[in-house]
Amino acid sequence: MTSNFSTKFPCGCLGRLISTALLAVSSFLAGQATIPPGSDDLAKAQDLLNHGHLDQAIAILKKLAGIEPPIVGVEHELGTAYYSIGELEQAKNAFAKAIEQDAHDHDSVQMEGLILYRLGQPDAAIAYLERALQWAPNADAQTVLGLCFVNVKRFDDARITYAKLFGEPPESAAAYLLFATILRHMDLSEPAATQAQKAIDIAPGLPLAHFMLGEIALEKSGFDQAAQQFEAERRINPDYALAYERLGDAYMHLEKLPEAQLALTKAITLDTNLASAFVKMGMVLLRRQDAQTAIMYLVHAEKLAPEDFEAHAFLAQAYRRIGDEDDARRENAIAEKGRHDSQSPLQTGK
Fold first, then answer.
1. In the predicted model, is pLDDT for residue 155 greater than 50?
2. Alpha-carbon distance 84 to 130, whole Å?
3. Could you give the number of structural domains in the chain?
C-alpha cells in the first residue's frame, strides 16, 4: 500500500505547520539582523580600554570607525582612547563625530567642551558645557565653564556659574566675595577688587572683603589704602590674626613703627604660630634700634619656619648689630642657601 502524506496531515494542518516554521525562521533571522555589525569588535575594544591596552583598542576602533553606516558608540570610545593618551585634537574630532551620530550622547558633549577648553578655545567650549549642564549638574563641567567665562571676560556669567556650584544666590554678597577669591587665585587682581567692592556695597559688614582689598592694595604698594582696608577688616573681624599682621606690614612701610608694633603684637597674641608676624616684628624692632628684642622674635620665627630665609637674614643683621659675628655669619649662610634653593628650578624624580 502506498502511503499518502496528505492523508495523515490534512492540507489545513500542513499549511499551519509550514507557516509556523516559516515564522520561526523569520523571527530568528530578524533577531540576527538586529545585532549591529562589529559589535563583538567594539566590545573587545572597550575591554582593551578598560585594561589599559590603549594602542590595541585604538587600532580596532579606527577600523570600526570606517564602517558604513556608522556604528553608534565607536567614535565615543575612540575619543575616550585618544583623550587617555593626551591626543586632544584627535579626541576632539572623535567626540564631535559621536555627537553628530547621537545628539543625546551627554558624555561626548561634556568631553568636547572640556577638550576645547584645554585646547585654548574657551569661547567654543562654552556652548558644549552649557548644554551638558542642562541635562545634569556636574561639578567638573561647572568649574570649567566658570573658567571659560573668566577667560573670555564674561565675569557676570562666571560669578553666576560659581555661585551655582557653591549653592549661593548669584546676586548675594557671598557670591561676589567667593568669585573675588577665585579671581585672586588666578592672579586677576583688578576684577577681583571690583567683585570684592561689590560684596561690600551689598553687605558692608561682610568679613574678609576689606581684607582682600587691603592685600590687593599692598601688592600695588598702596600702603595708605591698604592700612585703611585692614583697619576696616579688624573692626568687622577683631579676632582675625592675619588682619593685624597685614596691618602691621602696611604701617611698617609707612614708617609708622609704633602703630606697626602694636598691630603685630595683637597678631601674635591671637596666633602664637604665625611666623610671618614674628619676622615682621623683628624687622620693626630692628628699625627701632632694639636688636636684642628683635633677636628674641626672630629666633622664634626661625623655629616656626626654619625654611624662611628672610628670618635668617634679619637674624643675621640683628646679631651683627650686637657684635656677634659668628652667629651673624652662620645665619647669613643659611639665608643665602635658602634664597638660592627657593630660586632653583624644581628637580623632579629626586
1. yes
2. 24
3. 1
User: Which among 129, 101, 103 has a CA at the least distance from the CA of 116?
Assistant: 129
Distance CA 77, CA 44 (A): 11
Cα separation, 126 vs 114, whole angstroms? 9
Give the residue carrying C-alpha cell 530568528.
28
Instruction: Tell me if the bond preceding 258 is cis, omega within 30° of 0.
Output: no
Q: Which domain holds residue 285?
A: 272-340
Residues in CB range of 298: below 8 A, 6 or more apart: 278, 279, 282, 311, 314, 315, 318
8 Å CB contact between 5 and 21: no
Q: Is residue 80 a contact partner of residue 48, using CB atoms and an 8 Å limit?
A: no
Does 24 reside within a domain?
Answer: no
Q: Cα dihedral angle (274, 318, 259, 226), rounded to 10 degrees?
A: -60
CATH number of the domain within which 287 lies: 1.25.40.10
CA-to-CA dists, residue 213 to 197, 220, 322, angstroms: 8, 11, 39
The whole-angstrom separation of Cα 259 and Cα 280 is 13
Give me the mean pLDDT over the 11-38 stretch. Answer: 42
Q: For residue range 196-232, list pLDDT tens digits in order.
A: 999 999 999 999 999 999 999 999 999 999 999 999 9
Please answer whether residues 59 and 81 qualify as being in contact, where contact means their C-beta atoms are separated by less than 8 angstroms: no
Is 213 a member of any domain? no
Go through 186-205 and write b for each residue having 16 or more CB atoms within 10 A of its CB, e for each that does not.
Answer: eebbebbbbbbbbbbebeee
**Is 175 strand, coil or helix?**
helix
* Mean pLDDT value of segment 158-179: 97
301 lies in some domain: yes
Write out pLDDT tens, residues 129-141.
999 999 988 899 9
Residue 305 lies in a domain: yes
Name residues whose C-beta falls within 8 Å of residue 167's C-beta, 6 or more positions apart in sequence: none
pTM: 0.80
